[in-house]
Amino acid sequence: MALACAWAIGLRGVDGEVVEIEADIGQGLPAVSLVGLPDAALAESRDRVRAAVVNSGETWPARRITLALSPATLPKQGSGYDLALACSVLAAARTVPVAALRGVVLLGELALDGRVRGVRGVLPALLAARRLGVEQAVVPAAAAVEAGLVDGLEVLGAEHLSDVLGWLRGDRARLRTVRGGARQQGGGPREDLADVVGQLGARRAVEVAAAGGHHLLMVGPPGSGKTMLARRMTGLLPDLDVDSALQVAAVRSLAGALDPQEALPAAPPFVAPHHSVSSAALVGGGSGLARPGAVSLAHRGVLFLDEIYEFGPHVLEMLRTPLEDGEVRLARTDGVVRYPARFQLVMAANPCPCAPPRPTDCTCSGQEKRRYTHRLSGPMLDRVDLQVTLSSVEALSWDGASSVPLEEVPEDTKSVRARVLAARAAARERWRDAGWRTNAEVPGPELRRRGHLPRPAAEVLERQLRSGAMTARGVDRALRVAWTVADLRGAAGPELPDIEEAISFKGFVTESVPGAARDEEVA
What we know:
single chain; about 35% helix; elongated
């Protein structure tokens, strides 16, 4: 009887733990038994591994082989265990040194001819390995750029099983060390906010949202600039720091959306799913252990939901927990997975189902408009800090000549971004000891405890609460927006004008919907 062990990394969301793969060669008819909660792809690895070993010029033991994956209670998914399974079997057969496998994590799928193929999740697996104290890892050569983003452990790229076996037998030249460490590419060209014609109120809302990390709803007719404003939001946000960029890249790796030749991203992500998206595609899901959805792909960036009233109500309600907690927790029969989801939600909608370019052309009844807008529930709407109405564009610029008064000529992205970055720096310094980055992340009780609000400003918020115009959550969100407005003007704290501007962003009035006043008169 011969026994040997190899090691891999089992992922549960972005978290991982070391999986010990034990191979036992015992008496009995030739057979391979794989235990330890493998999924279908992993259970099929028995045939792949055997063919890869034989086609690499090695001898497969003609005896009974038992392969156990520990911890046995952790569900194992995917084909990334192939390389570790093959090495453990050959070590148990004593064709490679058992001691050479100690302290080495092996990741990769095996082709039938022995080639080591790339797998999803190499980056989060290596981050988990580093966190768990692993010092050496062998990964597919195709994932070398992705693996090179992780420093603090030695990573080796392998193209063929025979190269890995040669390296284990002492020929260290068979595998090349992946060099790199975390590095970022530039954010690239940014779409200019000056391209948006008019809409000064909406531009101000976008600036405040970017400065404080607030969620935003824009309602206006087609062609008024809602999508243009949303796409320019990421140009106002600060570049990702290394830790945030690694989190973004790790989620992309798990979703299979990471370019294998891409450097660590610097620009915040912008994700815009179609309104027909399923709940699993939006927040994460799928069979077995759930995969990340659009909210996680938008981590530390912007999630843009256009035509928000066309989304299914059940899909929208699933956003409530990520908006509050900044992460997604998905429970399945195979276990609970966790994905980061600290994003800014930007929503856009037409004011009514017929969506005319001019308000006077609306043919919808008041009941139709109310039914349409009520698809966004009160609790969901209460979590949106800024609500702004856009009007139709009635003038454009030709040949560089502005058609609007000089005092209304919009600022470009560079000017607005400078104010946004200064405001974010002030908020980060204020909440540094608590670990919050933006005003939108600060709990309401902490805002009221730390910030001294002038009595006239406090009285305005109290009247809003007593009258029922705002809920307690809405008051807290207005206070957060007021702190951001104060940061944008460089003040030490919010004053009465800041509170009034914050409240104005929560005042989404029915008179802004085409034909609403007319329908009320008829009623």
